[in-house]
């Protein structure tokens, strides 16, 4: 039952990328046909990467101008204008963080897609290389059997059958059939060159893809870490964290522009190949494969004749004739020449192994196996591979935009934090409404300058007046005074709690002091 041929259709995005303008370094248009060995075509791809370099220079220039205007030309702002500005900076940082996280997600997907496509390509190349290696091995084994093993047996049998002309004539005829087989095998195309090329391409592709995947993975992790640390720095309002993020943000901005240029050049070059892969492969194999053989494997149509069919038919017929001759010699010559049985059986085993090799060779030379590997490789690199590169380019664009906005927002936040710290430094420490001054009032190191109620009551024996000095009560902090006034209530939950900021004894001590001094106080009518 015949199977339908699988056709390859290039995806639309490869045509879109293929139509990108190709210019060399002198701004002359270049043919967009995939020709990686020509210098003009290489220059056209490098020119695409240089566009990203120009974008990097422009973005760094604009960021420098903005940072200079923020740091050097900033005016003093009132409190009413600071609050809306801080809100704007916060919302800008939040939106930028969301965009950057989305870009990282797109980058992970694109990196995985590209890796899957390249893996499918290299897997197909290794399968095709295994097929070509099997063909070369079978051809070499059959040639060795005919040229060495068979000739040795025929030479010994020629000496044994020297007295029988009919047997010698049968041996000569078998030699002619062996020569036909050798001629057909040597006329087959030399596939060892293609085998070496596929193996080298697969190994080099695996090597480059591993480091490409690892580089993008580290870049994605770096972007994610920068985003998280930037959020932490803005939340904690830490200037050194924001400064560190600005440095790493510039580094990541440079890397993002570089990845955009490399990804664009690679996607365009791959698309140039995917639009017309048959033409490129035919040009690369014309030195060791005929156009008929290349066309047969590239298109594998049932209407195309097998270019090896004639050679395989002659091989099969010659081998069948030799097997018939050996069978007759074993039947009629062994009773007369018993010593010839060993060589005749050796030739029979050799012919049987050659027939087995012929069956395997017929299967491997069929176009369906290699054509399937060819289609699988194209599907992998042109669908998953180029699609993943487009997602990686989108990731680079989003990350570039996000980092530009993030650097501007962080620079603005840095200036706001600096302005706030300077305003705090300008507040008068003697201001009673200053939180910093209230904190200093509760400082234990300053407790010696404040007279507690305990120290006042202990000095009642030496006081002539029954009323405490008014200035002493005036300097007590409000919170401390309220805590001391609660002592008269005798609330048990404050029994074991020291006075705030003073380290004073519990309220029971005060009751003992008053009970001891009660009789010494003067009584007024």
UniProtKB/TrEMBL annotation:
State which residue ranges cross the membrane: 45-67, 88-109, 213-234, 241-260, 389-414
Q: Which UniProt keywords apply?
A: Cell membrane, Chloride, Chloride channel, Glycoprotein, Ion channel, Ion transport, Membrane, Transmembrane, Transmembrane helix, Transport
Enumerate the subcellular locations listed in this protein's record, separating them with semicolons.
Cell membrane
Where is the major localization of this protein? membrane
Pfam families xrefs:
Tweety (PF04906)
Ranges in coiled-coil conformation: none
- Domain of life of the source: Eukaryota
Q: Does the keyword Calcium apply?
A: no
Topology versus the membrane: Multi-pass membrane protein
Summarizing the function annotation, the protein's role is: Probable chloride channel.
Q: Which family does it belong to?
A: Belongs to the tweety family.
Name of this chain's protein: Protein tweety homolog
- Organism lineage string: Eukaryota, Metazoa, Chordata, Craniata, Vertebrata
Q: Give me the gene this protein comes from.
A: LOC106560351
């Amino acid at each position: 039952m015949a199977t339908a041929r699988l056709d390859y259709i290039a995806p639309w995005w490869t045509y879109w990328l293929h139509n990108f303008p190709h210019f060399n370094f002198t701004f002359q248009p270049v043919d967009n046909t995939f020709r990686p060995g020509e210098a003009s075509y290489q220059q056209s791809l490098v020119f695409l990467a240089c566009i990203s370099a120009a974008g990097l220079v422009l973005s760094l220039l604009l960021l420098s101008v903005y940072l200079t205007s923020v740091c050097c030309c900033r005016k003093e702002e009132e409190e009413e204008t600071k609050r809306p500005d801080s809100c704007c900076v916060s919302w800008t940082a939040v939106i930028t963080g969301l965009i950057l996280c989305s870009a990282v997600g797109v980058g992970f997907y694109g990196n995985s897609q590209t890796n899957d496509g390249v893996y499918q390509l290299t897997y197909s190349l290794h399968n095709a290389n295994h097929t070509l290696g099997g063909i070369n091995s079978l051809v070499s084994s059959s040639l060795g059997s005919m040229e060495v093993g068979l000739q040795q047996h025929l030479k010994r049998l020629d000496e044994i059958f020297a007295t029988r002309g009919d047997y010698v004539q049968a041996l000569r005829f078998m030699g002619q059939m062996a020569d036909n087989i050798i001629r057909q095998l040597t006329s087959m195309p030399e596939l060892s060159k293609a085998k070496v090329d596929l193996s080298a391409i697969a190994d080099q592709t695996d090597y480059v893809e591993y480091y490409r995947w690892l580089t993008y993975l580290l870049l994605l992790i770096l972007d994610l870490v920068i985003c998280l640390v930037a959020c932490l720095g803005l939340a904690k309002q830490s200037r050194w964290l924001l400064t560190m993020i600005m440095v790493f943000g510039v580094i990541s901005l440079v890397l993002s522009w570089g990845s955009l240029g490399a990804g664009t050049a690679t996607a365009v070059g791959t698309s140039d190949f995917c639009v017309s892969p048959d033409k490129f492969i035919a040009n690369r194999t014309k030195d060791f494969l005929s156009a008929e053989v290349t066309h047969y494997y590239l298109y594998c149509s049932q209407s195309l004749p097998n270019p090896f069919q004639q050679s395989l038919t002659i091989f099969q017929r010659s081998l069948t004739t030799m097997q018939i001759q050996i069978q007759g010699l074993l039947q009629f010559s062994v009773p007369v020449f018993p010593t010839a049985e060993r060589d005749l059986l050796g030739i029979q085993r050799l012919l049987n192994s050659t027939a087995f090799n012929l069956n395997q060779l017929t299967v491997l030379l069929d176009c369906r196996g290699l054509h399937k590997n060819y289609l699988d490789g194209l599907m992998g690199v042109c669908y998953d591979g180029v699609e993943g590169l487009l997602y990686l380019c989108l990731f680079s664009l989003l990350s570039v935009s996000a980092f530009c906005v993030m650097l501007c927002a962080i620079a603005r936040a840095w200036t706001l934090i600096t302005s706030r710290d300077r305003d705090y430094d300008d507040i008068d420490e003697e201001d009673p409404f200053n939180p910093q001054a209230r904190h200093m009032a509760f400082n234990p190191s300053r407790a010696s300058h404040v007279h507690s109620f305990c120290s006042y009551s202990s000095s009642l024996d030496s006081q002539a007046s029954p009323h405490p000095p008014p200035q002493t009560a005036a300097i007590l902090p409000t919170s401390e005074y309220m805590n001391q006034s609660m002592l008269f209530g005798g609330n048990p939950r404050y029994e074991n709690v020291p006075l705030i900021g003073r380290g004073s004894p519990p309220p029971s001590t005060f009751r003992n002091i008053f009970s001891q001094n009660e009789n010494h106080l003067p009584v007024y009518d």
